[in-house]
């Protein structure tokens, strides 16, 4: 998602609760997820999966809230959860932060109780509930810092971020800090380079070269887990020729999917934000166009974020059916999961589908049943 997600939620959790970590299940059937043909193998079973996104779960400070979400995901049959593995700040804060870019100071990675230990809890709770996580390392957007936080600090730009030596050294240091914490966990579905990387107006080789280098670096740190890009899936031609099928944002879906250390592809779908009038028709075409590329490159792809502000079941339901029936598409993850925590309802950006709602019954319970 490209619009601000910093809302009431960011302010709601400023104190770190100190409850006892839960015991891990040590389930003997748990294994590291892997590619299996054009699908994934999750804990010994190969098939299509349903999942969702929660950017905020690693910023919660109450362990019971994390466990509540994980138990609801498990009960619903949602197998994969995508979370923000970054939380970059540019000022000192008493809240949760993972990495700081404060003018005049050396960037810091926070491994303390209000830092990566919050993400540790998400990983341990995911292990206990047999939920798999996609963890990404930087945001293209300014929410929770992202590339703009690096750029303000280093004097770089949206374009030079991908090639600047100091930026890339700090980005890799951050990746190493996160990956080495969880490299032996069966709860990691995949490491993800960024949320929605774009390089507007750039030659597509800039992002492709950066993704080649970064994925090789991650592979050198952790040869056991899958790696993916986290892009929106903008294509170099095809489809109806409209904006998402162009390289205006410096992205070439097929070229990036062919990178050796990229295990699978990702794509997102927000037709309204992209100026597409026929959300349903455009979306079905977008899903099929990606499936065709993924099948031709012989790597599975994940329909990783999608959403509508209104008419969710009438639009997202048929998209799910299309994804389920398209070769090359191995799973879908709607944006975004909602629940009621100790502090109240989680952030509502109009795309949220709350656990227990009628939209949830249709787009989660019904969908999971169709997957079988
Ligand atoms: C995980 O990373 C640490 C630190 O880089 C390393 O010492 C360890 O061998 C790695 N473990 C696995 C299972 O790859
Ligand atoms: C989707 O595929 C399944 C199995 O291949 C088939 O039974 C079903 O009719 C298809 N649904 C649609 C809407 O094409």
Can you describe this structure?
There is one protein chain. 35% of the residues lie in helices and 17% in strands. By secondary structure, it is of the alpha/beta class. The protein has one domain: Alpha-Beta Barrel (TIM Barrel), CATH 3.20.20. The strands form 5 sheets. An 8-stranded parallel β-sheet has the order 11-10-9-5-4-14-13-12. A 3-stranded antiparallel β-sheet has the order 1-2-3, with no helix packed on it. The chain has a 3-stranded mixed β-sheet with strand order 6-7-8, with no helix packed on it. Helix 5 runs parallel beside helix 6. The protein is globular and about 55 Å long. The structure holds 2-acetamido-2-deoxy-beta-D-glucopyranose (2 copies). One 2-acetamido-2-deoxy-beta-D-glucopyranose binds next to loops. Residues 180, 183-184, 222 line the site of one 2-acetamido-2-deoxy-beta-D-glucopyranose (NAG). This is mannan endo-1,4-beta-mannosidase.
Keywords, separated by commas or semicolons:
eight-stranded parallel beta sheet; 18 strands; secreted; mannan endo-1,4-beta-mannosidase; single chain; TIM Barrel; disordered N terminus; binds 2-acetamido-2-deoxy-beta-D-glucopyranose; MAN-like; 17% strand; three-stranded antiparallel beta sheet; 372 residues; EC 3.2.1.78; alpha/beta; mannan endo-1,4-beta-mannosidase activity; 10 helices
């Amino acid at each position: 998602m490209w619009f601000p997600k910093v809302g009431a939620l960011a302010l709601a959790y400023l104190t770190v609760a100190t409850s006892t970590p839960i015991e891990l299940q040590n389930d003997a059937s748990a294994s590291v997820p892997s590619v299996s043909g054009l699908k994934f193998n999750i804990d010994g079973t190969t098939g299509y999966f349903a999942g969702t996104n929660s950017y905020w779960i690693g910023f919660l400070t109450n362990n019971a809230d994390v466990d509540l979400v994980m138990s609801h995901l498990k009960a619903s049959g949602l197998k994969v959860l995508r979370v923000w593995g970054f939380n970059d700040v540019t000022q000192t804060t008493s809240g949760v932060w993972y990495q700081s870019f404060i003018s005049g100071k050396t960037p810091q990675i926070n491994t303390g109780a209000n830092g990566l230990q919050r993400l540790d809890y998400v990983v341990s709770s995911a292990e206990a509930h047999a939920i798999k996580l996609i963890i990404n390392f930087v945001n293209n957007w300014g929410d929770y810092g992202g590339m703009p936080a690096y750029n303000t600090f280093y004097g770089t730009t949206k374009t030079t971020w991908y090639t600047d030596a100091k930026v890339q050294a700090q980005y890799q240091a951050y990746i190493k800090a996160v990956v080495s914490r969880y490299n032996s966990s069966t709860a990691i579905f995949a490491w993800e380079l960024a949320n929605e990387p774009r390089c507007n107006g750039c030659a597509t080789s800039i992002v492709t070269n950066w993704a080649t280098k970064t994925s090789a670096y991650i592979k050198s740190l952790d040869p056991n887990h899958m790696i993916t890009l986290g892009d929106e899936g903008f294509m170099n031609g095809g489809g109806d020729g409209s904006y998402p099928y162009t390289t205006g944002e410096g992205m070439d879906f097929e070229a990036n999917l062919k990178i050796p250390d990229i295990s699978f592809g990702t794509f997102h779908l927000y037709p309204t934000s992209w100026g597409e009038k026929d959300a349903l028709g455009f979306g079905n075409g977008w899903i099929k166009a990606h499936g065709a590329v993924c099948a031709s490159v012989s790597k599975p792809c994940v329909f990783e974020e999608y959403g509508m502000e209104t008419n969710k079941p009438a639009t997202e339901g048929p998209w799910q059916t299309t994804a389920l029936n398209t070769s090359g598409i191995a799973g879908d993850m709607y944006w975004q999961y909602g629940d009621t925590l100790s502090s109240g309802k989680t952030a509502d950006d109009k795309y949220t589908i709350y656990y227990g709602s009628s939209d949830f019954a249709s787009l989660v319970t019904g969908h999971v049943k169709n997957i079988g």
